[in-house]
User: Fold these one by one.
Assistant:
Number 1:
Amino acid sequence: MRPILAISGLSKQFGGVTALAGVDLTVEEGEILGVVGPNGSGKTTLFNVVTGVHKPSGGTVLFRGRDITGLAPHAISRTGIGYTFQQAMAFAGLGVLENVQIAGEHARATGGASPWPTPQALLDFVGLSALAGEKAGVLPFGSLRLLGLALALATRPSLLLLDEPAAGLNDRETSALVGLVRQLPGHGITVCVIDHDMKLMQMLCRRLAVLDFGSKIADGPTEAVLADPKVLDVYLGGEL
Ligand SMILES: Nc1ncnc2c1ncn2[C@@H]1O[C@H](COP(=O)(O)OP(=O)(O)OP(=O)(O)O)[C@@H](O)[C@H]1O
């Protein structure tokens, strides 16, 4: 089967800094793939290049076989790639439901039936119905993260990129998030997630790719990757 996302030889220079050094990576339809690596290894840059925030210095990104390399973010979003940010993004002065409505207005026109036909249904899914009328700016941090997930889902992605979705969440909130993300493939949404929390990644991902200094050093079943001496080496004294 053709991968939903196929990244080949992707590189990105920021002046003299090599953030990505020729990364090959595929995301298979229906999986939850984890991308890990030490601070500064290029994970966020990888997402930023895939979503069009940064233009790559070299390489290609194919989404469902279509070359989307270097397209503008709005054009990439319309192909069906959604993403959440490290910082939850919402209009603070608008209501929770209004935020989801607005995000949905920018949804791609070509998607099939959404698993969540209304903004309210999406709020039900992420567990924020009770807060629908609140201003986003007054939400507690955990709820704001869930709103960030709802906003990304409102754009009706078929591939969702999650950048540190559990950062700052407590254990209960993290479990709730894991429960939601695990359901996404069943709703036709493939997931690629970055996080430092290896326990979270073990709960979510059957496959992990590891970046180090902008290069992919491992890619395979989660348990095998976490036992790989090359991976243990880059995390020496670190999170593992
Ligand atoms: N906009 C930018 N301008 C200049 N350098 C950048 C920019 N974005 C990232 N970098 C550099 O590129 C390298 C990779 O950074 P990146 O944020 O992709 O790593 P990361 O793996 O996501 O790190 P972290 O886990 O800390 O979020 C780092 O050396 C970083 O300083």
Number 2:
Amino acid sequence: MITIRGLKKHFRRNEALHGIDLDVPEGKVTAFLGPNGAGKTTTIKCAMNLLDRDAGSVEVLGTDARTLKPEHWQRIGYVSENQKMPGWMTVPQLLDYVRPMYGEHWDRDFEKKLLADFDLPLKTKLRSLSRGQWMKASLVSSLAYRPRLVVLDEPFSGLDPLVRDEFLSGLLELTETEGWTVWISSHDIEEVERFADRVAILNNGRVDLQDDVEAIQSRFRAIEIGLSDESASPSGIPENWLNLQVQGRIARFTDSNYDESSSNVDCRRLFPGLVRHEARPINLREIFVALAKSYRSQRQGKS
Ligand SMILES: Nc1ncnc2c1ncn2[C@@H]1O[C@H](COP(=O)(O)OP(=O)(O)OP(=O)(O)O)[C@@H](O)[C@H]1O
């Protein structure tokens, strides 16, 4: 549904995207994660043709993002973090305004269901809504025409836990029953882990990792090593060992490409005093934190 290759974008002297390669496959939920400033919003805006790119290709629904036409937009539901809407309108006025743009695609029953689920005030002007209500209004106006491709940039900001949960369950149901393709950027990794099929992790304008969630989880392990004597950090550690810390007789790190036999061999080679070796599966949040820490120390190492 979305194929991005070699995408580059700079703002003045700052190159924000250094050649992004990313796939958002049809019928799957792809989570887009990364530290602040990694380039998630810039990538999404290039795909939604809100920003022009400097280099590379971006295909959305089989079409170059620069040439998306109204018939494509009728199949795309895009909600951004700072969605602009006319503040002087009420929610029903907003929906009356956008509905005609989607013609037969607009589903009045679904609109009513979303309005009821989100419990939105109907007489209040948009500018007087809370941040969460504002997000919900923009979600209703972007989902009521049952788009095939849903692009959400930080949709949870401002939503309380109950609504967040309801919104996610609804989205999940639609993804399954209607085969929706979802591309969602978020810092809320626990939520994302519950429903994403795929994850792409962005770091400093590059996609560092993208794969099915299960494949990523199967590759990462938290390793703890018990030593017979106090030891210092060895040199020449494998590249897939992230954030090695040695404290007294315990060494800990995250293995980003775990393989039981080679992990045992490497640990014994680098820690001859090894008396215990434990490998624990970790969740997406722990994986993200381990990667973010290693990105930070790489940056600090360079500066
Ligand atoms: N309009 C702009 N003008 C100048 N620099 C920009 C602009 N938009 C983004 N940037 C820069 O591009 C880089 C990527 O920003 P972007 O907003 O895409 O990151 P992000 O991953 O979405 O961050 P966050 O998680 O904080 O929302 C940052 O260095 C940011 O300062």
